[in-house]
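Lecture notes, unit on protein representations.

Consider one protein chain, 191 amino acids long.
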Amino acid sequence: MSEKLFTEFPPVSTEQWEAVIEKDLKGADYHKKLVWKTDDGLSIRPYYREENLNDIKHLYSEPGCFPFVRGTKADNHWLVRQGYCANESYSEANKQALDGITKGVESVGFCVDGSKECCVTDMEVLLAGIDLEKIEVNFEGCRCATALSYINRFTEYLQKQNVNPQLLRASFDFDPLRRLTTKGAFCHPDS
C-alpha cells in the first residue's frame, strides 16, 4: 500500500491549530483550561506534533545504551520468577524451589521472616541444590535488624560453595530508609 491517506487535505501548521484553539476557548486561559500537571510537576499539553520531537535527545537511543531510557539490557530476556514462603520451613521452601526450577523457574524469591536472625545452617538448608551461578535468588521480607544477618550468612554460604561472583545474581529486600519514611526514624533493633 503505497498511497498516503488524506493526501487531499492540505497540511495544517501549529499556528493554525493554536488559532482555532484560542478561538474555541473564547478568551479563557489556554494553560489553565488545557494544560495539566502530573504529580511530579510535568506540564502535559493537549496535543503534540512531530516538531515537538526535535528537542528530545535520547529519542533514538537503543536498549542497553546510555542514557538507558529503554532499559539497561540490550535484549528483552525476562526471567521466570516464582516466590516461595520460607517463614515456616527453610527445607519446605527449598523443596518447592527445586521443584519450580525443574519446571522452568529461573529466578527464585524467598519470603523470609524478617524478625528472626539467620544462621549459615539456615542458608545451607534454604539453598541446597540450587545452582547460584544459573538461578537468580531474591530475599524478601528482610527488616533493618535482620537484613544484615541474611546478607552476611548468604555471603558466608557463597564462600563455602565457591560460587563465581561474576555469575551470581541475587537481591535482598533491604531498605534502610523504609522505616525513616514511614515511622520518621532510622532503623532500630526492634524494627
